[in-house]
Amino acid sequence: MFLPKLFTAIVLSVAAVSAGAQAVQGAPTASEYATAPAAPVASVPPAPAGPASNADDDNFLLLREAARQDDAAAAATYAARLPNYAIPSYVDYYRLKPRLRDASADEVRAFLQRWRGTAIADRMRNDWLLELGRLRDWANFDQQLPLFVLNDDTQVKCYALVSRALKGERVAADARALLINPPGYGEACALLIATLAQSTQFDRNDLLAQLRLAGESHATGPAKRVAALLGGSETFTAQAVDLPALAMARGIGAGSIDHEIYLLAIGRMARTSIKLATVALEKNAPRLTAQEQATGWAAVALAASMTLAPDAYGYWQRSSGAPLSLDQLQWKTRTALRVGDWAMVRATIEAMPAPLRADGAWSYWLARALLAAPNVSISQREQAQALFARIADINSFYGQLAMEELGQSLSIPPAGAPLARFEIAPMAANPGLQRALKFFSLRLRFEGTREWNWELRKFGERDLIAAAEFARENAILDRMVNTSERTRTEFDYTQRYPSPHNEILQPTTQSLGLDRAWVYGLIRQESRFMTDARSGVGAAGLMQVMPSTGAYVAKKIGLTDFVHTMLSDLRTNILLGANYMNMVLANADGSQPLASAAYNAGPGRARTWRATLTAPMEGAIFAESIPYPETRTYVKNVLANATTYAALFERRPQSLKTRLGVVLPAGAQANQLP
Fold first, then answer.
1. Which has the minimum average pLDDT: 430-439, 528-537, 589-598, 611-620?
2. CA–CA separation, 559 and 551 (whole Å)
3. Rg for the chain (alpha carbons), in Å?
4. Would you say 556 and 583 are in contact if contact means Cβ atoms under 8 Å apart?
């Protein structure tokens, strides 16, 4: 969400990226524009002094902030100071945005016509669709929706389904696929659920699924609203989500909805104390139906799985017959992988909805489960090979693993024909890319990325390669990587996997004995090579070193007079980051998956995850079952990156499986592996 604190971070930072997070892939959605109380008109300061261009930029930043605060008067004041600004469409946007609730339809349409075909026009259409949905102005909403190019806003999609449902269309299947994240529902998706319940398109099971999902995601508001639709108490539901011990002490209740609210409390309590949750569930089992008991055990199993608790597998076995959420299906599969129950792996993946089952991770593990079955049939083997073939691709973790299963060489594809200057020249003249460069110069990466990605939609393969090269020439390496990754038939892996600052990094890695490919793989994931990247928690620079970590490493290596501002120095950042990688690798007994997890989530958490092992575990299974979603994605991306970098550096095929190896219990020896 585009919240006030994040807004400030974006203004102040050239690259506000979270540690290990992927670079932004698409344009931000309207829901990211949270509003705050309007500031009084008297708060408008005088125009900044200084050179005209600097003053204009300062006024533009103040205009942007005024729009974010919904302060229409301040926005109008700042906009009036920018009659000839370099990005007039955004001056118009920020002037109109805080007045959108009061603006006439003709005024909004005039803006859309004036800036038609641009990213900011699509942004305004997104904003207007949300306002039209709020007003229940379905005539204008239905007219504007087909013109919304990106159509990437969940709440707009919810309003669209409401509009269709009110016309008598059957939209329940689309709604079930859309309604998977209660914390992001807002008013639009709450309206959709109520509309479908009232029209009987959603039955009791649909509402119960939403209630359980809201409990899983600690979404109190959505849980209360759905409970009310089911005839339950909103007060008791809020207690079940926020104060589960209190809800459990109150008792199980008599009606079926009371039972469901009690089970909600069981699931929430399991996040804090699995023991208390299981004791309560066992005690009240005689008063619950068989399916209610299974639902309770599934909630406990999910909490246990997310802490890698040893009893999680047993809890999943007791949940047979329970309807499972998407998270429950995935964690049941991960738990089965950890204990080697390939039959459960296969059954659970096959029970997933088709879109989830088609994900590269579950396609890979389903294929592995098919091949792990006793007496594998020819048809099973063919099905597994087809699954591997569908996802085989050097550019992803499971794609690389699938290639190896097929016996394919993991090598760098040959580059296309070299770019000519006449192919790059149109990029410099492209208005959208020019706007993006202007935003990047203002440290507004949010807007810059939106403008950049909007233009990429129009490009063919050679255009993408040329745009990536244009990004390289302007030192915007995150956009270079992201742009080049979009090609499917023509490749330039020096763009996709660059190795800048090698003159600094290589001597450092050589002196430490570190794998240079792994270091570059980590940097690519951490900062996308933005040297002044800064995360919301303070991690800084190319290797996203935390100030406390930097101070610790500096002391260990004898770097005196360290202060956290030194993390902005490229050489210091690489020195401290590489030394820290070396430390966590030694602590992980040389395991790159475990060390990568420690670099991202902290050595203490990595030690905790390792402590759950009672036997050597395949590195891919360890990576897939990391409890933190960010770290799970991070480790997989770092190791896939490193494998590709090794293929680039060594100019020979590489093996991700070999790099992953096995993760051993603490104190174990490699020769214990069967």
1. 528-537
2. 9
3. 27
4. yes
Contact between 523 and 600 (Cβ < 8 Å): no
Mean pLDDT of 406-433: 95
Q: From 272, 332, 278, 281, select the one nearest 302 (Cα to Cα).
A: 332
How long a stretch of residues is the chain? 674
Whether the per-residue pLDDT at 449 is higher than 60: the answer is: yes
Phi, psi of 617, deg, nearest 5:
-125, 135
- The model's confidence at residue 537, banded by pLDDT at 50, 70 and 90, is confident
Please state, as a whole number, how many other Cβ atoms lie within 10 Å of the Cβ of residue 195.
20
In the 3-class helix/strand/coil scheme, how is 85-137 assigned residue by residue?
CCCHHHHHHHHHHHHCCCCCHHHHHHHHHHCCCCHHHHHHHHHHHHHHHHHCC
Rounded Cα gap, residues 620 and 632, in angstroms: 11
The encoded tokens of residue 507 equal: 């001597």
Residue 157 has, within 13 A of its CA and on its CB side, a CA count of 19
List, for residues 53-103, the tens digit of each pLDDT value.
699 999 999 999 999 999 999 999 999 999 999 999 999 999 999 999 999
Phi, psi of 534 (to 5 degrees): -145, 130
Is pTM, for the whole model, over 0.85?
yes
20: left (phi over 0), alpha (psi -120 to 50) or beta: left
* CA 144 – CA 140 distance, rounded (Å): 6
296 contacts 281 by C-beta, under 8 angstroms: yes
Tokens of 464: 């993408």
Helices (H), 136-219: 138-144, 154-166, 172-178, 186-198, 204-216
Indicate the SS3 state at residue 428.
helix
- pLDDT tier at 42, thresholds 50, 70, 90: very low
CB 106 within 8 A of CB 96: no
Tell which residue, 419, 418, 417, 412, has the closest CA to residue 493: 412
CA distance 197 to 648: 56
Token pair, residue 13, equals 């930072």
Contact call for residues 397 and 636 (beta carbons, < 8 A): yes
- The CA–CA distances, whole Å, from 83 to 61, 64, 325, 362 equal 15, 15, 53, 54
669 pLDDT band (50/70/90 cuts)? low
**Residues contacting residue 126 through CB under 8 Å, at least 6 positions apart:** 29, 30, 148, 150, 153, 156
Longest dimension (CA), the chain: 80
**Contact at 8 Å (CB) between 267 and 324?**
no
Distance CA 612, CA 311 (A): 11
The residue with tokens 């302007």 is: 474
Out of 412-416, 477-481, 535-539, pick the least confident. 535-539
279-321: pLDDT as tens digits: 999 999 999 999 999 999 999 999 999 999 999 999 999 999 9
HSE, side-chain direction, 13 A CA sphere, residue 546 = 14
Question: How many separate helices (H) and strands (E) can be counted in the chain?
Answer: 39, 2
Beta bridge partners of 545: 540
CATH architecture of 504-672: Orthogonal Bundle (1.10)
Q: Are 665 and 614 in contact (CB under 8 A)?
A: yes
pLDDT above 70: percentage of residues in the chain = 91
Task: Report the SS3 class of residue 663.
Answer: strand
Instruction: Tell me what the pLDDT averaged over the chain comes to.
Output: 91
